[in-house]
Amino acid sequence: MADPVYSGTLIVQISSAFAAVPVEGATVAVRIIENGVPAIFSVMTTGESGKTPPLEIPAPDPALSLSPGSVKPYSVVNIEAAADGYYGYAAVNVPIFAGQVALQRINMIPVPDSDGFSTRPETNVIVNESEAPNL
Asked: Is pLDDT at 67 greater than 90 in this prediction?
């Protein structure tokens, strides 16, 4: 008999202006981390609401969270988002738990409207989801 397969669901919601304006047509790349190496798992585009379609991601058995140990009871993904007119965004070490829906909210920062700026600048906002915020 095969081991049961578990998964969690990821939805990415991209907006601007502190979540007031959804960003339609943003490209979202999800990289799954296996053995410490990130690999592209899926590339999606946000819809009119600024959300991606739900994405099923393999995750460990939820029973692993019931006892201490060295095995993490969740999968880890990195999420990269890009849209014309906005700085890029990367959320790293985002946890995905089996049987749960993870809604990753991303607030894109617009590029200043000036002749000196590109519509897709090389500067990105990077947020490590596994560290406490540095306030």
From this structure: no
| Cβ within 8 Å of residue 44, ≥6 positions away | 12, 27, 28, 30, 52, 53, 55
Band (135; pLDDT cuts 50, 70, 90)? very low
Q: How is the chain classified by DSSP, letter by letter?
A: -PPPP-EEEEEEEEEETTTTEE-TT-EEEEEEEETTEEEEEEEEE--TTSBPPPEEEE---GGGGGS-SSS-SSEEEEEEEE-TTB-EEEEEEEEE-TT-EEEEEEE--BPPSSTTS-SS-S-EEEEETTS----
7-128 adopts what CATH topology? Immunoglobulin-like (2.60.40)
Which of these ranges, 27-31, 32-36, 55-59, 93-97, has the smallest mean pLDDT?
A: 32-36
- Residues 27-52 have pLDDT tens digits of 999 999 877 788 999 999 999 999 99
Mean pLDDT, range 123-131, rounded to an integer: 69
* Extents of the domains making up the chain: 7-128
